[in-house]
């Protein structure tokens, strides 16, 4: 049973968010690292992200029965009751907020709460099922973890935090649209109006290309604003252009599923490279 509670918190998503938390934290630290502060920031974000995932599982338990990839989830199978899920999600969220309040600062708490409200209150409860723009609004929530890591150190929402929010919000779009393409049948079965379902896969491909152009324009901002060094610029630009090339090549391909998976897995590589380079090539 404990395994089911672990799985419903989506540990893979938590780990992915911790990578970007670390990137934001080490960027702001500029080589002077407070490990205890990092522990509080990482733990707090992990708990709140886990809370959001459990709430999402609770909210989506009806449509999860319609999708192949989600029909075996614990709430769908009745292995965890809706009441238990609500209590579990609430406890995780409250613990996360307490950890951030105790160990970091009020800016972090505010950023996390804004992200949580967007993800659970706006995206999961409303826009996911009713608007093609749900992905765009949800991207703001997905971009909060590196901002939390950064603000834990800086203790302010400054230009660096704003640039991180911009970069990671844009990153979310091709990442999410790629999932929507290779999970097209699931989203269509559940009548979720993601762009490929609401319009066409080709329109989603064009949007991916446009967002990747924007991503390649946004990532150098950390260098131009004096937060990172030249190696950050060179390496992130190289990987970003490679991601853009994959998107461009996909405009003519007929193998949409295989192409979308390549875009998706490249997006994971990109966020790891982005987080690593802004951690190690800071300007202090």
TrEMBL record:
PANTHER family, alphabetized: PROTOHEME IX FARNESYLTRANSFERASE, MITOCHONDRIAL (PTHR43448:SF2)
Superkingdom to which the source organism belongs: Bacteria
Coiled coil: none
Pathway participation: Porphyrin-containing compound metabolism; heme O biosynthesis; heme O from protoheme: step 1/1
GO MF annotation, one: protoheme IX farnesyltransferase activity
Keyword flag Transferase: yes
Name of the molecule in the record: Protoheme IX farnesyltransferase
Protein role: Converts heme B (protoheme IX) to heme O by substitution of the vinyl group on carbon 2 of heme B porphyrin ring with a hydroxyethyl farnesyl side group.
InterPro entries, per database record: Protohaem_IX_farnesylTrfase, UbiA_prenyltransferase, UbiA_prenylTrfase_CS, UbiA_sf
Family that this chain belongs to: Belongs to the UbiA prenyltransferase family. Protoheme IX farnesyltransferase subfamily.
Pfam families: UbiA
Leftover remarks: Carbon 2 of the heme B porphyrin ring is defined according to the Fischer nomenclature.
Class of the enzyme per the UniProt entry, highest EC level: transferase
Signal peptide start and end residues: none
Subcellular location: Cell membrane
An annotated GO BP: heme O biosynthetic process
CDD domains: PT_UbiA_Cox10 (cd13957)
Species this protein is from: Methylophaga sulfidovorans
Known EC number: 2.5.1.141
Known catalytic reactions: heme b + (2E,6E)-farnesyl diphosphate + H2O = Fe(II)-heme o + diphosphate
Record keywords, A-Z: Cell membrane, Heme biosynthesis, Membrane, Transferase, Transmembrane, Transmembrane helix
Membrane topology: Multi-pass membrane protein
Spans traversing the lipid bilayer: 12-29, 35-59, 80-100, 106-125, 132-153, 159-182, 208-225, 231-251, 263-280
NCBIfam families in the cross-refs: cyoE_ctaB (TIGR01473), PRK04375.1-1 (NF003348)
